[in-house]
Amino acid sequence: MQSKKPNRLAALPRVLLGAGLLLAACVSAPVTKHDAATPATLLAPPAAKKVPRDVTVHGDKRNDDYFWLREKDTPAVLEYLHAEAAYSDAAFASRTAPLREKLYGEMLARTRQTDDQPAFRESGWLLYSRTEEGKQYPILCRKAAAGQPEQVFLDVNQLAAGKKFFSLGNWQPNDDATLLAFTTDETGFRQYDLRVKDLKTGEVLAERIPRVDDFAWAGRTLYYVIEDPVAKRPYQLYRHVVGQAGADPLLFEEKDEKFNLEVNRSRDRQFIFVGSTSHTASEWRVFRTFEPGRPGAAQLTLIEPRSPEHQYDVEHRGDLFYIRTNSGGRNFRLVTAPVSAPGRASWKEIIPHREDVMLAGIDVFKDHIVLYERENGLPQLRVLDLVKSTSHSIDFPEAAYDVSPAPNREFDTHTFRFRYTSLITPDSIFDYEMSTRERTLVKQQPVLGGYDPARYAVERIEAVAADGARVPISLVYRKPLVKGSPLYLNAYGSYGYSIPVTFNSDRLSLIDRGVVFAIAHIRGGGELGKKWHDQGRMMNKKNTFTDFIAAAEQLIKAGYTVKEKLAIQGASAGGLLMGAVLNLRPDLFHAAIVGVPFVDVINTMLDESLPLTVGEFEEWGNPKLETDYLYMRGYSPYDNLEPKAYPAMMVKSSYNDSQVMYWEPAKYVAKLRALKTDRNPLWFKINMDPAGHGGASGRYDRLRETAFDYAFLFEELGLRQ
Q1: Of 213, 402, 547, 657, catalytic
Q2: Per-residue pLDDT for 321 more than 80?
């Protein structure tokens, strides 16, 4: 689940199957001695004990035999999870170790390990990051000007030294670039500490503020938002002056549990914006960055009060606020308002709502505005010239691609930097001169080993859903296409998130062996605008699942693959998708990778003590309401498992995941093991070391995780090694 954070570890030693499973009352399973000649199908997986628990709601009788797996850190739970890890190690990981090493080396060989990213200007410096061979994390650097000596201002490898997990969150220098604020997570739980570094002395200062979700600078003052310690909801805004002792004053608190608080600064640095946002509504307050006195809660100016289903966001230029709002239609329009009177009564439309074009965002500069739009399922860039009162679009050549902004920190500039990529075009950074329309390639990410995009083909096709909706599918393969090839189909389909159609050199290890890679842009995502999202959420959620099935059937019908060679993948809310479609049509798929899956939908959404549950009532519904409950009951993967044959599956999780708690996939695997009637493999790969919703944190560790996934696909799809 993307925001189902889609953000206390075991001290027990890893249990080795070869030494016998240490299973107490929580597990009962015969232990089968494993050697290289033993087929994986003969190894007996652990069987979790059943402890019946009545979870009946609205008179609907449900029993949950595995509810006890929620008891984190208890001996019984730890022993079961270690037993599952040991089983996958012995029955799968040990057998595929040579293949995984080969894949890891193959993927690593395409990567320029010592590399740097193009510098961008901010606060009078050129800032950039670089990597060094053998080091897991980036190094953040700056120069006073091109050709001047390099200054390393944050070496993430040094910060991460001796830690099993380390994530650098936000980082930002202050106005005169003498201080650096940055946030770090050392557990994978996505709760970050805010630190400050003196860039003149190199000293990391004494300030350490826990649970910081967002921050913005104003001179030596930091405005920051903290999370609730239990619900993980960002909800309180504080002010901190660097070096000043004492308690920081609370400036604002968002009390509605459906709303998250955020803070940011306008590109022209004139205003601090404080946003309260839910999945369906928003409300913004502002104050000037530098003004006499210190701003308190009463001094924040409200732009427009929140109202049901009204979403808007704000930028600033001159005497005007620029407001992207859905007040005139679901796909948003652009209006302006005077700084002196920002409310809706003063709004003046400059870009109208369009039924066929989604206004996804804006970037405001001194003389230009860049519009981020989506049309025909693809991202577009349009430039408004505010001096000449003209507009133009930036053209892109391929049938399926992704474009997104690169760092653009300066306000007074005519140059806009963006990233362009596709399924065959590596990440490419361009500088675009907005007045002359000149486009300059700054850097394209190198792919070592003789990669030639001409060897590959990209297609964009459509599947027709049962209700007539046309579902886009992006796919890539090595030419010529062989009918009935192995195919790896991916999708997400929630929160209005559009899966970017991007290049990944790791994928070549599959594609060069004849695998077709495809992405289904199903409803619930945002590829075709806000209505596409609406048609796949709440009481329309089942469209997400039937769209995916229609996409798979179309790929088979068109000859790209056959069901015996069709593998699928989804993670988080995409893991919910996997669970739902495997319940509906297990016969359609040969193998599935089910990543950090949100599969225990009803039990999770009934528990308001869990992170983010309340806020997500607007995406999934509230099962305390009978109508919502009954609809969820019809698709919740855990609640709809049945005694029948399922495809080969790999289910993945992290013990310290804060977005989809480990027990959801653990319960799902335990129940599936007890019910399924086939002998297909079911692996539960749970990372018991510090790791997060996205897995390991280091770049080499992540590559090994990819090799693990690919080894599963190699075995199930019969790919040549």
Answers
A1: 657
A2: yes
How many Cβ atoms sit within 10 Å of the Cβ of residue 46? 26
The predicted-structure confidence for 638-668, as pLDDT tens digits, reads as follows 999 999 999 999 999 999 999 999 999 999 9
Count the helices and strands in the chain (H runs, E runs). 12, 37
Residue in 167, 572, 636, 653 annotated catalytic: 572
Catalytic (active site) residue 282: no
Write out pLDDT tens, residues 417-473.
Answer: 999 999 999 999 999 999 999 999 999 999 999 999 999 999 999 999 999 999 999
Residue whose pair of structure tokens reads 């609370």 in the numeric block: 250
Report how far residue 295's alpha carbon sits from residue 318's, in angstroms, rounded to the nearest whole number: 21
The pLDDT, as a whole number, for residue 290 is 84
Which residues, other chains included, contact 97 with Cβ-Cβ below 8 Å and sequence gap of 6+? Answer: none
Neighbours of 378 (CB within 10 A): 22
Tokens 């030693």 belong to: 13
Q: Which of 266, 282, 693, 709 is catalytic?
A: 693
Burial bucket for residue 355 (CB in 10 Å: 0-12, 13-18, 19+): exposed
- Residue 689: the pLDDT is 86
Round to whole Å and give the CA distance between 491 and 53. Answer: 34
Let me know if 572 is a catalytic residue: yes
Is 693 a residue of the active site?
yes
Helices 573-584 & 542-557, crossing angle to 10 degrees? Answer: 70
Task: Select from 200, 198, 195, 199 the least CA-distant residue to 212.
Answer: 195
What pLDDT, in 10s, does the model give residues 673-686? 999 999 999 999 99
Within 10 angstroms of residue 320's Cβ, the number of other Cβ atoms is 18
Q: Quote the pTM value.
A: 0.92
CB 672 within 8 A of CB 84: no
